Amino acid sequence: MIYNNYHRQILALDDMQLEQFVREWIGHKVKDYVEVTRFSGTGDFGCDVVGFLTKERHEGSWHNYQCKQYGRNLPTHTALCEIGKILYHAHQGEFSVPTEYYFVAPRGVNRNLQKLIYNPSQFKSKLIDEWDKSCSNNISKGSTILLDSGLMTYIEAFDFSTIKRITLDDILLDNYVMPVLHKWFGADPGPAPRGQAPLEVQDSELHYIKQLLDAYSQRSGQAFANHKEIQNHPDHGPHMAMQRERFYDADAFKRFYRDNTELDVIETFERDILQGVIDTCNANHIDALTRVDSVMAQAARVQVAGPLAQHAHVPVKQGVCHHFANEDSLQWFR
After folding, report:
1. Going from the N-terminus, what domains does the chain have, and what CATH number goes with each?
2. How far is CA 21 from CA 50, 168, 179, 309, in A?
3. pTM to 2 decimal places
4. Which of 143, 196, 266, 316 has the most CB atoms at less than 10 Å from its CB?
């Protein structure tokens, strides 16, 4: 479904837009990079999008993503020139040789180039054999780069198995592309999974649970020492179980959309909920449990804006309020 909806949009990107798209995608995809940078224009030495694996950046380990938005699949001679360019400049001391090299070619690579990528020793031989034809006059404008003994040795030492290709299918089937599709094309990541409340109360929910305990104690006129004393209570036990279901529904919702949209989408959603319930929470109530139930009723009525409106079901909106209580943005017991 994603492929059918967005393959044409990606193919319609120009060279600069493709580089920007890939930079954002790689930033989501690879968490090991200390920095992802896009180089562009003259003097990029064959680097388009670079992922640095160490703080030494170009003096340490790094990956190069060479983006090629062609009207057809990537031809062999172009790939040979790009590899030759980056190896030449690495040999000249501009940077260390990349530890991984990717051709990002949405329309794919031609059959001969694909064969070379899957046969690294043949790729090396092809580059050396066709240096004069593909590289010597195409690396530096106005200069002829000869394949002298030093450069030959450098090329022979390079690990050609580190060269790979990324096609449109690879991009669209990747688990980390959805936030970028959402930002660029308004892609809908679909509904979030439901949450599952664990049997035992977790440390991460103790703060709002403590406030609920105080509310139950106030209503009952008896002190409950901990949440385990509530579980078998005929009224408060089911009530607490429902609040925990809501909390974990909201937790699953927030995690899903943080992974699949831009961060400000969840921030806007939460702001809508908070603004929609804050006056109800701050109003006078006969006791704390009435405050909780009144806020739950109000949260169910809040209409949120933006792309999550269709996915924000009632339990999620109610559960977010318990997240607010957990963070002291709302207070159930005062």
Report:
1. 2-185 (3.40.91), 203-326 (no CATH)
2. 13, 12, 11, 26
3. 0.79
4. 316
